[in-house]
Structures are given as structure tokens and as C-alpha cells.
């Protein structure tokens, strides 16, 4: 993880729940806008809950046992008013829920989009530092957790609290003595709930961990299915999965036991409170301090106490979860992107690449993956003329990929600078080039040309949106791939499957080359695939690559030295430094690492064992 992100995580770990909420709400304007009306509706809904106990009291004391005997007219009026208020209450609850769902979903969709965009803005280096799953979960499950809490727990918490307050006020108006009796019964429950909530938090913490274990075991079993089958380790994999499921089951049962204890305590205390209210009420009634209606109303009001106290445990637990998730999402949003589009800083900051063939210049460039780490590239100072096809070769770990990532600005150099352009049209520092211009003119074809689960044509079209199927077919023809695509079951409309699984590794590379071809860049950076492909596909690929690189400045990270043989020039990288440069013909006979690499490659491609370095 990058140091900036670590510091941010550290700073926020100790942050209080309210501080997180404040920080989060500041980032969710959509939610803030809708909140006041929703709260007003929640309050109206809460107030509506005490209307039934009040109506019951009025009907008994004034309608049935009034001084002039039963008063049917009064009872009718009370019932009608009560029905009206209950109806309004139902409408308020309905509106509140609809509003709440809409505002939270709008706000969370906004948050998700911003978090997702931000993850994209972070450099490849930062994304690699974070576990990918962790980044994905921040944009998906952490936001879901928030959504559940805001729509269910949050509002229920507010309503429950309101219900407690309104019920207490109404009770106090009727009889302060009985109110004290009820509070005395519920206080121990509140203390018990606090204790149980802490246990519940621990229990659900274990459950979440176990869910993660189960997911990890399942995904490993699915992704690694071919290896599992090949090595006949199905039993062992199944046993591992069974163990994870069993542990999850046991954790879940334990957590449910605590939840059940909370509910039972609530029921028990409610029963005790009812008995206490009846006993105290009758005693007070004998003295004439309390009426029958008030007593019955109290019994109703006691029930309004039980649910909020029981719910409080779950709301607290959900709340803790949601706040933790919220923190993780906000931490992503607050990580400053280390590779920033200059166009974002202001229109004057960004520059366009010159409309001329592009050359590459490295000015004393060094790069370290972490402060204090050994430099992956050190003091690289060179210029590549436009339209040259350059092969970058070197031992594994020598810094070739780092070089490619700096040219395409997937990362910025630690020292020095990279420029694109040429002497006539001028040189532009890479960190000043607007991303739109950069992505249009410079294309990197990674080793594993990622394919999306769509058709061949769709995947090629990613290179240049708006390309028609006919244009895709023409592009494939021009690359010499017409016969290959014609042989596919549905031509360019053939679906490639997830990550291109329905195609062979070589065919996936062909699609990636076609994608780069329709993008029509001036500067191409190719990370040659290391996987072996069959001779026919190899021939097609070589031909397509020749056609693709024709007339474009090309930097190829060459794993096969046949690519270096065909290149205009070869750069040899060793331990982060460019140690040799020249044509293959020059270098192969000179004393130095290239001759050694080449000899070793010749031996290994001829099937002989290569000498150890
Ligand atoms: N994300 C990273 N974090 C830390 N160190 C890294 C990272 N990526 C590469 N390195 C280190 O930087 C050095 C150069 O790596 P690089 O990937 O550029 O080598 P390479 O020449 O492309 O290797 P290969 O031929 O195996 O792909 C290596 O020592 C490597 O361990």
C-alpha cells in the first residue's frame, strides 16, 4: 500500500463515528438535500404511534365512564379522529420510506460512482498496493452495508428513539408515578442491552470473518477448478470448503443466541413492567389518583418501549458495521491521485501532443516502487526517434515493464522526466499532457490483453468507440486476420466469454492487436506475451504485429529475441540501467549482456538447457 494511503488509514482508524458521519455527509450532497423532509415525516410517523393509547384512554374515561354515562357521540368522534390520524400516519410512513429509499439510493449511487472513478484515477501502482478484492469491496459491499443501514437501521433507530421520547412524555403527562415504575423496569434492560450489544459486535465480527473465509474458499475452488481436477485434490478442496462452512455456521449460531437473549430479555421486562403498572396503577387508582383509561393506555404505552430497546442492539451493531464500511469508502475517496490528469487542474495546465510522429525522451529518469527501495530504473537518459521500432530486452526483473509504465504514464518517475514529441514539433513533458490526448495517441498493449465478456467486434471496438462491425472486419483483413475471424463460429459476432476464456491465449492476443490497430496510435508500447502459441497463430500474430507497428514509434518489451532481431534498434536493460543500445547486428557480436542473452535464448529455443547466469 502506498505510504499516503497508509497514513490516511491510520489517521481515520481512531476517528469517532460522528466524525465519520460528518465527513461522509459532506461528500453526499444528494443525501443532505433530502434529509430534513424525511426527518419531519419520521417525526410525524412517530407522533402518530401514541394516538391509539390516547384514544383508548379517552374512550374509557370520557366516552364510557364519563360523568353523564356512556357518550356514543364522543366515542364515535374519537374513533374517527384516531382512524384519520392512523391513516395519515400510514401515509407519512409510506412517503418517508419511499423518500428514504430514493435519497439514499441516489446518494449512494453517487458515492459509488465517485469512489469507482477515483479508483481509476489512482495510479496502477496504488491499485497494485491495495489488494484488488479490497478495492472492489470498498465500491460494492461497503457501500451496500451503508445502504442497508441508512434505509433500515438508521431510520428505525431514529423512529425508535422518537417513539421512546414521545411515549415517555405522554406517560409523564398521565402519571409521573407510573412513568417512574416503567422506567425503573426498563433501566436494567438498557444496561443488559449495552452488555449484550458489545457481545453481539464481537459475535458478528467473527461471522463477517467467517463469511470472508467461505467466499475465499469457494472462489479459490472455482477459479482453481482445472488445477483441482488435474491433481485429483477434489476431496481435500471439498474438505476445506466444508470446514469453512462449518465454522461460519457455528459463528452464526453463536451470534443468533445473543440476539435471542436480547429479544427474550425485552419480552421478559415488558411482562414485568405490565405487571408492575397494573399493581401500581390499581394501588394508585384506589386512592383516586389514576383512572381505568389511563391504566389501559399505560399498558399500550409499555409495548411502545419494548421494540425500540430490542431494536437498539441490532441498530447499534449495524451502525458499527456501516460506519466501518463508510470509513473504508471515504479513505479511498480522500486518497489524492498520484498520477493526475493536468486537465483537471485547469485548462491552462494541460497540453495536447503535437500532431506529428511521436518520439520519446527520458531525462535522467529514476523510479523506485517505495521510498528507500532499490531503484527499478536508475538514471535512464535517452531519446528514441519517431517511427523507430525499438525492442527493450533484459533479464527478468531488470526494469523493462517499469520502463513501459513510465512511457504510458501509468506511473510518474521518482526523479527526472519523460517527454514525448520531436525536435521539430517540440517536446511536451508527459505530466503536462491531457489524458484525453495521451490516451488517443499512445496505446499500451499489455501482456494479457484483457478481453471483456462481449463479441470479438465489441472487444476490438474498445480501441475506438463507434467503429462499425464492417470497419472491424476491414481492420482484421488489413492485419491478415480475415481468414481467422471467418473461421470463428459467428465471425466478428462470436462471443469471447469471460476474460476471453472461449478463445485460445494466442487468439486473445490477436484481438488485442486488432484493438490497438483500430485505436490508430502514434506511439505503441507492446508488452510481448510470454505464453507459447501454436505455429499457425504465431505466424498470424507476427504478421499482424508487423502491420500494426508499421510507421509507428514502437517500444516492445521483447521476451522472444526474434522480436529484437526484427527491430530497428535494441535497448538492453540490466538492473534498472540501459547498458547497451544498437541494432541486433551490432550487439550480437559485441561483448556484453545482449550477446549472452541472445546465445542463451538460441539455446533454449533449440531445446538445449541454458547455462545458469
Ligand atoms: N509493484 C511493484 N512493487 C514493488 N516492486 C516492484 C513492483 N513491480 C516491479 N517491482 C520490482 O521492480 C523491478 C523491475 O521490475 P519490472 O517489472 O520492471 O521488470 P521486468 O524487466 O519487466 O521483468 P519481467 O521480464 O519478469 O516482466 C523488479 O525488481 C521488481 O521486483
UniProtKB/TrEMBL annotation:
It is a multi-pass membrane protein. It is found in: Cell membrane. Keywords: ATP-binding, Cell inner membrane, Cell membrane, Membrane, Nucleotide-binding, Transmembrane, Transmembrane helix, Transport. Residues 37-321 form the ABC transmembrane type-1 domain. Gene3D superfamilies: ABC transporter type 1, transmembrane domain (1.20.1560.10), P-loop containing nucleotide triphosphate hydrolases (3.40.50.300). Residues 360-600 form the ABC transporter domain. The chain crosses the membrane at residues 35-54, 74-94, 155-174, 180-202, 258-284, 290-309. One of its GO terms (cellular component) is plasma membrane. GO terms for molecular function: ABC-type oligopeptide transporter activity; ATP binding; ATP hydrolysis activity. This is Putative ABC transport system ATP-binding protein. It comes from Geodermatophilus pulveris.
